[in-house]
Amino acid sequence: MILVRPRKIEWASYFILMPLIDAGTCFMLLGSHWYLSVRLWIFGFFYTMITGLLVWYIDVICTRYINSALFGFRETGKRLFILTVKQFFIVLLSVNLIMSGFKLMDLPGYDPSTENFWISLGLAYFVTFIAMIIWEANYIFTEWKRSLAEKEKYEHLSLQSEFDTLKSQVNPHFLFNCFNTLSSLISEDKQQAEKFLDELSKVYRYLLRNNEDGMTTLKSELQFILSYFELLKTRHCDAIQLELEIDKKYENYLLPSLSLQMLVENAVKHNALSKHNPLVIEIFSTAGNVINEANFGGSG
Q1: Is 296:282 a contact under the CB 8 Å cutoff?
Q2: Each residue's pLDDT tens digit, 249-260
Q3: DSSP letter string over 6-46?
Q4: Cβ-count burial of 51 within 10 angstroms (0-12 exposed, 13-18 middle, 19+ buried)?
Q5: Is this prediction's pTM over 0.70?
Q6: What is the distance of C-alpha 162 from the center of its chain?
Q7: How far is CA 107 from CA 81, 136, 141, 143, 228, in A?
Q8: What are phi and psi of 106, to 5 degrees?
């Protein structure tokens, strides 16, 4: 059997509220002279504290079970109703144990009248009801923070999955086009083919490295874009142009790796390119830590 470990707020409610319940119960059952007698202090107040500790722990176990059975915000109304009923029986158990103990100890001044029983029960229920509301508020707040953190986690995983899927779609398409270009250059211009192959190796070293890291600096991404653009330039000649205007203070900023590459690739894929109507791709920074990518010329 796994013991339930009370939380700090549950311990605090016991040490703050239980003395109030015990003092009120002792006053009602033992009369106004109970606090003047050492014997009544020892056997009255401390007995009720120990009994209260036992019943409090049972209360903690019952509350945990109810919270786990009626989990979530949608069950709040039902959970509060059951907790309220539970609290009545917990208090009823506590007051009966205290009265039975007082009777067995034959404490002087003990008055087990029906009126004192109901007053003690009402006092104990009122005070413990406050504790129950505090516990429930803490439970709702904790669940709200947990659900918020879980939502952010799944949103991050969803975005990461979308990003990885997009990379897996772009990279094979890009590689296929590069091999077609390289095949043509080998027979037409071997020197240009060697240069193209060198730039292609730089590009794919970057692709392989950053597919694992996930994040990269803007400076590294821009260096990669220059190599990547050389490959595009070889394929499309004067039909494509690239202009970079990035403030150097942003070079160490982090961004998802290959994010600029996908923007450039999509700009090329979804626009018509020609020598007389070239596609101009501008990547520039503006105030407010924003990097922009704009397409001018061509038609899409």
Answers
A1: yes
A2: 888 888 887 778
A3: --HHHHHHHHHHHHHHHHHHHHHHH-TTGGG-HHHIIIIIH
A4: buried
A5: no
A6: 20
A7: 37, 37, 45, 46, 92
A8: 50, 55
